[in-house]
Amino acid sequence: MEHELIIRLGVFATAFAAFATWERKAPRRIRTRPIAERWIANLGIVAIDTVVLRILFPLAAVGMALVAEERQWGLLNNIDLPVWLAIVLGVVALDFVIYLQHVLFHAVPTLWRLHMVHHADLDYDLTTGIRFHPVEILLSMLIKYAAVVSLGPPAVAVLIFEVVLNASAMFNHGNIRLPEKWDRRIRRLIVTPDMHRVHHSVIKRETNSNYGFNLSIWDRLFGTYREAPEAGHENMTIGLTQFRDPTRLTLGGILLLPFRGNVGRYPINRD
Fold first, then answer.
1. Long-range contact set of residues 144-149: C-beta below 8 Å, sequence gap at least 24
2. Angle, to 10 degrees, between the axis of helix 35-56 and the axis of helix 251-260?
3. pLDDT tens across 98-142, in order?
4. Nearest alpha-carbon partner for 226 in 208, 250, 248
5. Average confidence score pLDDT of the chain
6. Taking the CA atoms of the chain, what radius of gyration do you get in angstroms?
């Protein structure tokens, strides 16, 4: 799709600037680590992820959707629906796939090793939402390809999904203070920072809850919703119990973390 990369980069830069400003003006929690220390690691791994994806997957998910449409692959490409409905169904279906993928990475110990990079951050801000190990990013892209080929969503639906997912990940990982009444209303549909922050608690039963990245319906529907952390948002401990040493959480440290770290008891159903 023409201008797809420009659109995605433009939305990313705008959302990043907006949420970074919001965090500075109305922070929800006091930071425990220097911002520069964490951002060097978090943004460094984003840069590596971007380069790796462009090299190994030059055809983005939007491009795959165009190929699927041309060859009539996927459910929605073989059902006669109004364009607007196909777009809505495509965005919602892809959001559900991301929810299932997130649960999967918490359930399988080998996948959890990769996902620990996201959870090992000792603070919680918009950069946490884009901090993922390159191998997890590659697996996520393969899952996304499979979803696009099997579901057959319109290319514009995939573009909307990608843009919204990226922006919402920064929003709901933001160190942002929302009025409580706004939070209650917004989280009926959209995952808010207070809702998703519970998922980054060191307490296992809280870590294994609130998996949604955009739509909040999936956690409510499948019984993984948790209202708030037991210790409260200001007093809860962020991260993983086995990774509390900040000297091991540099850019090099988090790249090596899946291969030398202890998975702990965090994977679902693990004693």
1. 144/61, 144/64, 144/94, 144/97, 145/61, 145/64, 147/93, 147/94, 147/97, 148/61, 148/64, 148/65, 148/68, 148/74, 148/94, 149/64, 149/68, 149/73, 149/74
2. 70
3. 999 999 999 999 999 999 999 999 999 999 999 999 999 999 999
4. 208
5. 95
6. 18
